[in-house]
Structures are given as structure tokens and as C-alpha cells.
Amino acid sequence: GDPTMEDELIYTLLDAFPSFSTLIALLIIFLLMKNMVKIVRQSEVMMIERLGSFNRTMKSGLHFKLPVIEQIRKINWRDEELERIDMRERVLDIPAQTTITKDNVSLEIDAAVYMQITDPEKAVYEINDLPLAISQLTQTTLRSLIGEFDLDETLASRDKINSSLKVVLDDVTNKWGVLVNRVELANVSPPKEVLE
Fold first, then answer.
1. pTM confidence score
2. Residues in Cβ contact with 179 at an 8 Å cutoff, skipping those fewer than 6 apart
3. What is the mean pLDDT of residues 143-161?
4. How far apart are CA 180 and CA 171, in angstroms?
5. Helix 158-173 and helix 130-146, axial crossing angle in degrees, nearest 10
6. Cα separation of 18 and 186, whole Å?
7. What is the distance between the alpha carbons of residues 144 and 101, in angstroms, rounded to a whole number?
């Protein structure tokens, strides 16, 4: 037989829709385009590697990257891998630790480090986990500095300790592309028997 009216309607509908292979091709093109276009927000940057080597830094604005050939280099940040590097000043909380003064008194001290990434290329390629490195460096330097003072000097000269700590940190972190703006000893807690 002759095709019925219903058969003609079905063939017309099938002709109106693109073929399955066309849909797959359009989906692949869409996914590639989505991966090619990147919008970087104000005060953020993205590091681009081409075939595994550093190629360029994307600053704020609209950018294009080649699919497959170019990849975004992620930065390790406290157990996370971030594609975007925040260039604003940040506060790193340094956990409390026990330090010993020159006159053998134990103190619980915690601190805050105000830091800013100034060179994202160094921050990604010179150190693996930047916040962890700064935290460890602050803790060891703080233990060393407190060991040079007795209890009374430690309690009376916080500003001196803060500025000495800042100088040491800023010197070392400069290699990592970081500027240490300020260091603040948050709490200095002597043992209860000393307070009585």
C-alpha cells in the first residue's frame, strides 16, 4: 500500500527534527564552547597551562582558552583545589600553640596573619599548600621569638613580637609571591598558676 495520512505525518515530523548524530555533534560543540569561554571576576586570576607548561595569567574580564591543549592550573588551598586565585587581602588564623619563654614558662599563643597574594604565578609554582606553609612558618617563628623573651617581656612587648614576626614572614613569603601586611598575636594565655 499507499502511505496513509498518518504515515505521512510521522515522516514529516521525523524530517523536522535533526538526526541523532546531529544532536550529539551540537552537544559536543556546546560543551567545547562552554569550556573555551571563561569569565574572570574582579580581584581574581586564573593560571593557564598549555600542554603542561605555564602559558599566561587570565585577569578580570572575558577570556578564551583552547580546549584540550590549554588547562586551568589549580592552586592547593587548605585541602581544596581552586581554579580561581583571590588577589584580595586574606586573614589566616594561626591555631593556638604552646610556646616556652626564656624563663621556662609555657604560654598558649594564637595569631592572625593578614596576607595578600601579589604574584599568582609564584603562589602556584613555588609552594604546594600556601596557607599551610604560612601557618607552619608562623608557628615555628613565633616559638623561636617567644623563646628569646621572658614572661614579663612577652606580655609587655606584643608590638615588638608582631613586627619581628612580620619581618621574618614577609621576607620568606616574598619568594612565594605573598605580601604579609600585618601579624597580630590574638591571645597570649599564661598558665593559671602564674596569673594567681
1. 0.78
2. 115, 116, 118, 170, 173
3. 88
4. 9
5. 140
6. 66
7. 9
